Amino acid sequence: MMSLLKKLNALLAGRDPSEPQPAQPAMPEPAVIVSPRVLVFVYNPIMEPATGKKLNQVMNWSRAEDLSGQFIADILEASGGLARYQIIKRVEVNEFPLKTDGFRYTSKTYMDVMTRVSAGHTPDTVDYQEFLTRYKILQLVAANQIDEVWVFGFPYAGFYESIMGGAGAFFCNSNPLPGTAQCPRRFVIMGFSHERGVGEMLEAFGHRVEFTLDRVYSPIALQNNLWKKFTRYDKTSPGQAEVGNIHFAPNSDKDYEWGNPRYVASRCDDWFNFPNFKNTLKQVNCTEWGGGEIRAHHKWWLKHLPKVGGRTNGIANNWWQYVLDPNRVIV
Fold it and tell me: Are both 209 and 285 inside the same structural domain?
């Protein structure tokens, strides 16, 4: 029975208390915060036993700790606080990675390649199976102790920018890891480098974004595919530029051209209104995304990824949850 208080409130509001009232609208699904637990491996062999100098010191390359810290901060900022990476363990490896044919560089053979005395070893690809087995990666993922792996290598280390394993793994800038289907959870191994910067780390992550969202939106017809809309740029879609992709800014004429001064009309900032587009259109050129600097462009691009609650056509309006947790992707 209706309580006296409810009847009184209804009468005061001018409603018949005996009539059924419309149901209150459901609260929209909130944007999910994802906090992947990362196991980090740093390949940094000692090159000078007498001094203890490591490879990154001899080559004057960056420290993995500095790169990873800046990368995590950039991802946190770009995602509006929804992507919160946490490093749970860091392992430093005092050797060169093993190749698929059993070859392993020594300090001398590696420096011979870097100084062009000899060519790099072929095949270059690292032995992922040995890596997974040695460090019990599949067991750690299956036991829900880690969510992904980062490997800091260097030129000729042989790691892909990203690769996915686990049951239902899909293409992620490389073919899925073979022999990992017994692992019930999908996971990504990111291949970074001491020799490069945070911008290149963001680029590797950007390709992961592209392949993940390609998969998420694969069942959606082109006319309703919001991911395809997001990646439009003027060269391939004249007058319909949106945000572009990780290699092509809205006004790029060629690959990796983030410094083009040419102005084009773009709806890039309308993505900040997602999913309630307002047809916001403006003229943009490279000054919008850092004048050609790789890290600035990639942060600008990532900041435009939708990160709000609710769903559109059955897909979460927070795209970050799919990128950081591939187990949320329906395959």
Answer: no
Q: Which domain holds residue 136?
A: 37-216
- Whether residue 136 is found in the same domain as residue 46: yes
Contact criterion met (CB below 8 Å) for 72 and 202? no
Q: Is the pTM of this model over 0.85?
A: yes
* Core vs surface per residue 41-55: b (16+ CB within 10 A) or e: bbbbbbbeeeeeebb
Q: How many C-beta atoms lie closer than 10 Å to residue 166's C-beta?
A: 21
- Three-class secondary structure of residue 33 per DSSP: coil
Mean pLDDT of the chain: 93
Q: DSSP readout, 149-189?
A: EEEEE-TTS---SEEEESTT---SSSPPPTT-TTSSS-EEE
Instruction: State the alpha helices, DSSP H only, in 102-250.
Output: 107-114, 128-134, 137-142, 198-216, 226-230
On whether residue 320 sits in a domain, the answer given is: no
User: How far, in Å, CA of 135 to CA of 39, rounded?
Assistant: 10
